[in-house]
Amino acid sequence: MLQQIREVLDVVEDTSRSQSDSIEALEAVLDRLAACIHTVRFEFDGAEYPDPPSQDPTIAYQRVAKQFPSFGYYVSVRSGHPRVVADPG
């Protein structure tokens, strides 16, 4: 799963591709990430990593928006309460 996450980040940060090639590459790596969720085993390590890392959806959106400006708004769902977390500008 870590490899698939790295592939997603590589696509998001790779500015050498055209936008259409980037979208095609993003679709492929997101498919692989979605498929691997069914085979990965999760182990909780409360000693080394007691709390999840903090999340700031605005920062994540800004990184993705540079490479995929046509994606527009995205919605975050936390605790069953959807909300728009980014304005594409």
How many strand elements?
2
State the secondary-structure class.
mainly alpha
Q: Let me know the largest β-sheet.
A: 2 strands, antiparallel
Write down the secondary-structure element order: HHHEE
- Gyration radius over CA: 15 Å
Beta-strand residue percentage: 5-15%
Mean pLDDT: 77
Largest beta sheet: strand ordering: 1-2
Q: Kindly report how far apart the N and C termini lie.
A: 32 Å
> What portion of residues is helical?
40-55%
Task: Note poorly predicted spans.
Answer: none
Provide a count of the helices: 3
What does this structure look like?
By secondary structure, the protein is mainly alpha-helical. 46% of the residues lie in helices and 9% in strands. It has three helices and two strands; from the N terminus they run H-H-H-E-E. The longest helix is centred in the N-terminal third of the chain and has 18 residues. It is globular and about 45 Å long.
List the helices and strands and how they pair.
Elements: H1 2-13, H2 19-36, H3 57-67, E1 75-78, E2 81-84
Antiparallel strand pairs: 1-2
Helix pairs in contact: 1-2
Descriptive keywords:
globular; mainly alpha; 89 residues; two-stranded antiparallel sheet
Summarize the structure.
With 89 residues, the protein is mainly alpha-helical.
